[in-house]
Amino acid sequence: GAVVSQHPSRVICKSGTSVKIECRSLDFQATTMFWYRQFPKQSLMLMATSNEGSKATYEQGVEKDKFLINHASLTLSTLTVTSAHPEDSSFYICSARADYGYTFGSGTRLTVV
Amino acid sequence: AQSVTQLDSHVSVSEGTPVLLRCNYSSSYSPSLFWYVQHPNKGLQLLLKYTSAATLVKGINGFEAEFKKSETSFHLTKPSAHMSDAAEYFCVVSLPNQAGTALIFGKGTTLSVSS
After folding, report:
1. How far apart are CA A92 and CA A94, in angstroms?
2. CA separation for the pair A98, A23 (Å, rounded)
3. Which one has a higher pLDDT value, B64 or A30?
4. How does residue B30 score in pLDDT terms, banded at 50, 70 and 90?
5. Which residue, among A60, A94, A102, would best test binding to B if mutated, counting the most B CBs under 10 Å from its CB?
């Protein structure tokens, strides 16, 4: 089945630094990738939708200059958290729509100290 | 606008008893609905999905859900709970937007199973 590989699974960074999260579709072409954020004991909130070769569409309240999304190829989408702060600590998950349905990455737990 | 409401934030059952996790949806047209499960510190796993075919949908691990348009509900059930069913469950609806069709998650229901 369709698999999305997400890396890293866990990252700890210092305040003010940037962190890049990668999602790769391994056996299919992901024209559209979705990025979600999940705070502890809360649900997944859609942050943005990225389409290959075009600018991402951000949900209301999500800062596009802080959460940079690049979808330069049909198999790779990246989310960069710029100038990270402790309040950005969260679980970030990507998702892509394959022929049979949606598939999710395994998630990245970001801790900003 | 489309959304889902999970009516219970926490459900506790005993092993071997039935499970009922409730979900209501609001949609201006016939939606695609899903149930996902998330075990602690793990990713998401699709339990089942409804996409306008049979209204009673059977999923993995003995779970099933029934789409009831008259009640705008998509409740998840299982006849007999196992300890391994303890997890977070999300009712999800697909939402087309100008960029694509994203999945919108309910707030989740924590299922606890006691022995």
Report:
1. 7
2. 14
3. B64
4. confident
5. A102
Cβ separation of B103 and A57 shorter than 8 Å?
no
The structure tokens listed for A7 are: 């890396």
Task: Give the mean model confidence (pLDDT) for residues B71-77.
Answer: 96
Burial of A52 (0-12, 13-18, 19+ CB in 10 A): middle
The residues pairing with A24 across neighbouring beta strands, listed in sequence order, are A5, A76
For range B80-95, the mean pLDDT: 94
CA separation for the pair A49, B99 (Å, rounded): 6
- What is the rounded distance in angstroms from the CA atom of residue A112 to the CA atom of residue A84? 7
Among candidates B9, B7, B29, B15, which has minimal Cα distance to B74?
A: B7
| Strand, helix or coil for residue B18 | coil
CB contact under 8 Å between B43 and A106, yes or no, is yes
Q: Give tens-digit pLDDT for A34-72.
A: 999 998 888 999 999 998 888 899 999 999 999 999 998
- For an interface test with B, the pick among A34, A43, A104 (most B C-beta atoms closer than 10 Å) comes out as A43
What is the rounded average pLDDT for all residues in chain A?
Answer: 93
Q: Which token pair is A43?
A: 């649900």
pLDDT for the residue numbered A23: 96
Please give the angle made by the CA atoms of A49, B67 and B114, to the nearest 5 degrees. Answer: 90
Q: How many residues does chain B have?
A: 115
Tokens of B106: 């309910």
Q: How many residues does chain A have?
A: 113
